[in-house]
Design a protein that fits this description.
The chain is of the alpha/beta class. About 30% of the residues lie in helices and about 20% in strands. It has two domains: about 120 residues, NAD(P)-binding Rossmann-like Domain (Rossmann fold, 3-Layer(aba) Sandwich); about 160 residues, NAD(P)-binding Rossmann-like Domain (Rossmann fold), CATH 3.40.50. It has nine helices and 13 strands. The strands form three sheets. A six-stranded parallel sheet has the order 3-2-1-4-5-6. Strands 11-10-9-12-13 form a five-stranded parallel sheet, covered by helices on one side. Strands 7-8 form a two-stranded antiparallel ribbon. Helix 5 runs parallel beside helix 6. It is globular, with a radius of gyration of 22 Å. The mean pLDDT is about 95.
Length: about 300
């Protein structure tokens, strides 16, 4: 059985679905590995590294799909709405596809893959259980997103994050406001604190308060209560527009006072709510930074 790793085709995507260090485990299990030439280059893994671990380097994408019984991708057709559809003709009956598929976003793409006779496994639906923790790629990627969001904001913002005492006086610390205290939001809070900023966060789930405070952040409490704030998996539930309207009104003052706003509020399977309006952006000081981690899905 052959595991195929094509190069990611989404514009700007630098990740690779399999790293050389994992290949020996697959070969020990009796699998062969075929990697498209250049698949790992952007992630820092040249073809020579894959070959040294026993992988075969395929000259082009079509060769990988033709040989593979199992196709590993980061962004499969479904999550890759730019170039993913070009892979559809390359699939064949009986193949297995593993990667990010975004099945709750559009059923049409999943049906198209199924119509080709392909069995697909969507890694973002991996349950958050102890047994499956090592395969929870969604949480892993969310952690990196939260960290990277703060680092990018710190580099972009003219404000200095930590409080600095200089010969000319004291510079007050930057103020970072995080909307949504899930995995990405909590990592953003932790990173902002490590960089010396004053971090505050809001989440409609009451259970998030203790988590925010444990990281040294201030939990913003609004005088509104969400109905059924979270589901059985701990994810936030979507609310009605009346709730979101009142929420935006109350968040306006906090956003206006912040140097950096990081939006990390995502509802699984639904379009993220718009929590920061044009008017709220206009109220922020010149040079303020907004990092929207939900923008890809329309939030």
């Amino acid at each position: 059985m052959i595991v195929g790793v094509p190069r990611e085709s989404f514009p700007g995507e630098r990740r690779v679905a399999l790293v050389p260090a994992a290949i020996p485990n697959l070969t020990k299990a009796g699998l062969e590995v075929a990697v498209e030439a250049g698949a790992g280059a952007a992630a820092g893994y040249p073809d020579a590294d894959f070959a040294a671990k026993g992988a075969k380097i395929a000259a082009d994408r079509a060769e990988v799909f033709r040989a593979a019984d199992i196709v590993l991708q980061i962004l499969c057709y479904g999550s890759n709405d730019k170039t993913g559809k070009a892979d559809l003709p390359l699939f064949r009956n009986g193949q297995v596809l593993i990667g990010f598929l975004r099945p709750l976003g559009s059923i049409k793409t999943i049906q198209e893959i199924a119509a080709k006779g392909v069995t697909s496994f969507s890694v973002e639906l991996m349950p958050r259980t102890t047994r499956a923790q090592s395969m929870d790629v969604l949480s892993s990627m969310a952690t990196i997103c939260g960290y990277k969001a703060v680092v990018l904001a710190a580099d972009t913002s003219p404000r200095i994050f930590p409080m600095l005492t200089t010969a000319a006086g004291t510079i007050t610390p930057g103020r970072v406001f995080v909307i949504g205290a899930g995995v990405a939001g909590l990592q953003a809070i932790a990173t902002a604190r490590r960089l010396g900023a004053v971090a505050s966060a809001y989440d409609l789930r009451p259970a998030a308060k203790e988590q925010v405070q444990s990281l040294g952040g201030r939990f913003v409490e609004l005088p509104i209560e969400a109905k059924d704030a979270e589901d059985a998996r701990g994810y936030a539930r979507a609310q009605d527009e009346t709730f979101y309207k009142r929420q935006r009104e109350l968040l306006g003052k906090i956003v206006a006072e912040s140097d950096v706003v990081i939006s990390a509020a995502v509802i699984p399977g639904k379009k993220p709510p718009i929590l920061v309006t044009k008017e709220m952006v206009a109220s922020m000081a010149p040079g303020s930074v907004i990092v929207d981690l939900a923008g890809e899905r329309g939030g």
